[in-house]
Amino acid sequence: MRKDLGFRLGTGVFGLFLILIVAAIGFELTRQSMLSIQKFGLAFWTNATWDPVAGEFGALPFIWGTLYSSVLALLIATPIAIGIAVFITELCPQVLRQPLVFLTELLAAIPSIVYGLWGIFVLVPIVRALQVALPDALRGLPLFSGPPLGVGMLSATLILAVMVVPFTSSVAREVLKSVPVAQREAAYALGATRFEAISAALFYARTGIVGAVMLGFGRALGETMAVTMVIGNNPQVSASLFAPQYTMAAVLANEFTEAADELYLHALIEIGLVLFIITLIVNSLSRVLIWSMSRSAKAVPSTAVQPVAAEA
Amino acid sequence: MLLTATLSPTVSVAADAKATHAEPPKIDVSHVNFYYGAHRVLHDISLQIQPNQVTAFIGPSGCGKSTFLRSLNRMNDIVPGARVEGRVLVDGADIYAPSVDVVALRRKVGMVFQKSNPFPKSIFENVAYGLRINRMTGSKDELRGRVEASLKSAALWDEVKDRLHASALALSGGQQQRLCIARALAIEPEILLMDEPASALDPIATQRIEELIYQLKSRYTIVIVTHNMQQAARVSDTTAFFWLGKLVEYGRTDRIFTAPTEKLTEDYVTGRFG
After folding, report:
1. Across residues B117-140, what is the average pLDDT?
2. Which of B164, B187, B190, B196 has the highest number of chain A CBs within 10 A, making it the mutation to test binding with A?
3. Is B131 exposed, middle or buried (0-12, 13-18, 19+ CB in 10 A)?
4. pLDDT, tens digit, 9 for 90 and up, residues B81-106
5. What domains are defined for chain A?
């Protein structure tokens, strides 16, 4: 009995540690950015000007850059990652399975600076060529405007997508693997084609798949090095895929050593705080999403479809 | 091993299965061997299953009865390394012929599994699933009608009619299994394969399933695998006894249980082993 108590206390302390660490990070980020918080208040979140010389700091371009690049990367990476997971678990020949799993895991293990170098030397010229080849009619659109630099939102998005795919697909693969065979059998026994049986498995695993996607999103939000190398590092809010922009992580990495005065330093740390808060919000939202999905599996809300009148 | 030498499988099959039925068999199996990789699971199985009858496969665990059942709708196709030799005819057509549409076959030969496996959807959507993927209903009214009819056939309608859009996972184990039966019936199969459909259920739920099987047999050809001999004796017209991947004896259920010709069958049905 006493041993058990010790065990519970011990693991409880570790659990408590987790909460303490998160709280300590939040506290410290707030404390160290106090000057900026006092000076700019909530306007810090909505101000689009980042001018260290004039002492005016707004986080909007970085918030925008981080969210825009991450969401776009997610849009590209999710179908690919799920496709890879489905192929590996459901379709691929046995001999290919292990090598493919190994390769996706290898992709996840490549340091982000290597991705960044690849981005600068391979991806950026391709994006530049693509932009040059773009028909004039499209170039007028806000989505494609800007000079052909190569570095910019699209390069960052593509590189993020490549980096996110192995994470999302690894988790999605595990999730799919854990779908009971009985679910697929049920579908097959009802005359399902392979595609329909796989769809049924994906539906069964949907909360886990969402989890996998959100993991990828979290990874994209915080990714620093590779993005810094190809996004162009220009604090502006632009919808253009070709415009050089900036992310929160990138500005921290780039300007931390240059922050000469205290307000500048505090503003940078507040950007860290903003990133921390946004990550928290995204994670909480994904929790809520998963929770509501698994809850609705237990009690499917009634829809407009009503039962036919009972027979007399 | 001593006992195998004395086997003369399928000898007694022709004797009583053919004598009592003039109709052509619904399922005609000849010389089926089954392998998982190099491991041989079924040895030269031949038997005929009559329409609108309940046929029970009995035998100890691992005797191959489930594997054999699953070879009747090619459910084993999805198991890697599985291989079938021999011939399985359903309504006279070879289901392992290269030209066979497996999807159409499985629609005709429905299946209910040992553990109930509803989809994590509503009761209504579970039953509608097969109708939807096979595009079997034109209008919403028709769909609703078919779902209702299927739930009635599975004797579940009265219990769920007020909560068709509640999750299937909220049903009890016995209800879930009847839902799986309703789901299988919805696409109007001609044959219903049941793989130990009541083995995970309590006695009352089991009884309901057995009553249901009895009611369904006028409309369907039913093949049921069970490790429960009393169940086989209660629900089936003919019984096949499997042992170590071989068909030991096949014949009318009352005869199998009262006057088996094989010593091994007698030992099994009287509970001396298994």
Report:
1. 92
2. B164
3. buried
4. 899 999 999 999 999 999 999 999 99
5. 33-47+59-296 (1.10.3720.10)
